[in-house]
């Protein structure tokens, strides 16, 4: 947990320097008496983490310049731009093949386009975005876009059934829903009963195969690829959330009644990562 000292920095490998930079993002809140106290007394390092530098994000490194009182920054996405991030198994004739990978750089570009696309279609900051499809890279990209542009992600599990999904959409006043062709039909069966909805984005489908919606609904229906394209043409600056801002609302299955929404802030998620970093080390090759 100790920051990298200037004396030892010259002897460190690039990988070790990255690890020291990550660890320096967390500081003990007080001088702990033992390891258990250290794990229960963690706070953010106010001079570390992601800071806005114009339209970009940077990570503060532990090095100091020889002169002046400035921090040294490294652009995180650029530094790991070509590293593998999200992998999808290729299936041929029912056989599982190799992974097709999306890099950190590609994911960062898609995140910016999706977030910008949501803003282009009229979603204001703080609005809820539903994710109504199974795990795939687009799920993670949309969730990242929500964080980067201060939207609230709300998972909608297809195992809940149409009634529970309809309840969650109305309860959270969801304005945009990302779904798959398989879950689109279920969504359309009760679309007239969810007045907050403004936008439906179909992941894995093409615009030519999307059904037409009655004009009285005032709901736009587009493909994920179209939203991606619109976002690229109308890029918006990031709108980073504050720690107390809501990151996601996770609803229960509703086995004891209607689903209950568990509200998690960005501070909650960072605290979870901080705790994880106390017991496990991550490396650039992971």
From TrEMBL:
Q: Which cofactor does it need?
A: Mg(2+)
One short Pfam family name for this protein?
A: AMP-binding
One GO molecular-function entry: long-chain fatty acid-CoA ligase activity
Domain of life, per the record?
Answer: Eukaryota
Which InterPro entries does the protein's record reference? Answer: AMP-binding_CS (IPR020845), AMP-dep_synth/lig_dom (IPR000873), ANL_N_sf (IPR042099)
Q: Which GO terms describe its cellular component?
A: endoplasmic reticulum; membrane
AMP-dependent synthetase/ligase domain sequence ranges: 93-276
Q: In which pathway does it act?
A: Lipid metabolism; fatty acid metabolism
Question: What is the protein's given name?
Answer: AMP-dependent synthetase/ligase domain-containing protein
Origin species, per record, is Punica granatum (Pomegranate)
